[in-house]
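Our preliminary data section would be incomplete without showing what the modeling component actually yields. Below, a chain of 493 amino acids is followed by its predicted structure, encoded as tokens that our downstream tools consume directly.
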Amino acid sequence: MTQFIDGIRRTSQSGQTVDITNPSTGELIERTDSANEQDVNDAVAAARAAFPGWSTATPAERSGALYAFAQLLEANAEELAQLESRQGGKPIRLAREFDIPGTVDNTAFFAGAARNLEGKAAGEYSATHTSMIRREAIGVIGSIAPWNYPLQMAAWKVLPAVAAGNTIVLKPSELTPLTSIRFAELATEAGIPAGVINVLTGPGRTVGAALLRHPDVDMLSFTGSTGVGRTVLDAAATTAKRVHLELGGKAPFLVFDDADLEAAIHGAVAGSLINAGQDCTAATRAIVHRSVYKEFVEGVADLYRKVRMGRVDDPATDLGSLVSLAHRDHVAGMVDRAREAGSRVVTGGEIPGGDFAAGAYYPPTLVADVDPNSELGRDEVFGPVLAVMPFDSDDEGIALANDTVYGLAASAWTRDVYRSMRASQDIKAGAVWINDHISIVSEMPHGGVKQSGFGKDMSTYSFDEYTTVKHVMFDRTGTARRDWHRTIFTEGE
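Predicted structure:
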């Protein structure tokens, strides 16, 4: 039973199933059923029925339920880590020390933020009226989350929506739905009412498509590829739904000639290999000043060779598998074509055999002398691959950083405060790290510009996506006849 609707698990009547496998071994974890249109209707109806009660609950009541939810997530941390590791091919250390703690912290943050839905203070902006702002929940949110961080992305979708008083129907990736279902179960156990959080599993082409176009869904939130994001926009246009999109990225990692090179090398390795590079904000384009280019390439290659691929249940493993064999082959194909086009594969670049043959493993791969206009220089790889290219002047480096259709995240590495300030302003991205890459905190927003989408996850800024601002205006005079009425009628004057 893998549909979670109105507070309980249930089995779809579709008769369709999806096998959830451990991509690091190819072993079957669970066979899930796939939702059909009736399941979508039932989930949306449950969310619609739960909305009046949840949206009018006091902020303190919503906060209390979310705080209990955070405690319950922490109490079940190991179970969630094991599920997340197995379904996604993640090293257990990453799941235990990043995915699960981040989700718990985000839940605790929104437990507090639920009591801080602010608006402009009441005031007299007209001499005869008092105005106030109400910030109100939108209604039923239809959300689609990706496979790369199944639990964290479920949290990023669900938490701001429900903290603001909305109800939600979430469709996780059919490849990695298990922690999302458990997340919803624990939320209900913590006291969040049945119907507030619903989860549907199955392919996007059926379940996702029905959810996107459902007339009783008031808003759509999607994290995934830019191509599918366009489909979401098309679906939203049919009923003029509000849309929040967090799409792809091609994050530049800009290294100036005065950078702390040791720090930049370590940052590049961590920033490019997190979650096996399956991260929209991962460092994928190292744009390095020519004077330190050779040393940077050698330093990253040296560290890459020390990264330990291995079983995902081994705490000593640094790099797990990619999410599927098909995705591994996609990554390998991009590297192969770059090599054929003249780029230099410094380390990695070959699908491993032996103990890794059954899994979707791909080694840390450093590709130097990449043409910025090539496939590897422009397109999202979503794997453990770092493309390196040189620059000569600050203007050229920043121009290369911006030479992409994406704008999700970027980093700049320099000891010069003026360079860092210029980079933070001139690089067009939703987040710019200075002398770091990847670090996130619940209090700060995450979201992109250009073809990386619009809207914010995390932080109180996310409430702008999940609430509507209403202006309420009170007359202060008590008079029947107003001066402005004469612009419309004069009563025969």
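Residues 92-113 form the longest helix (22 residues). The CA atoms of residues 352 and 362 lie 7 Å apart. Preliminary results of this kind motivate Aim 1 of the renewal.
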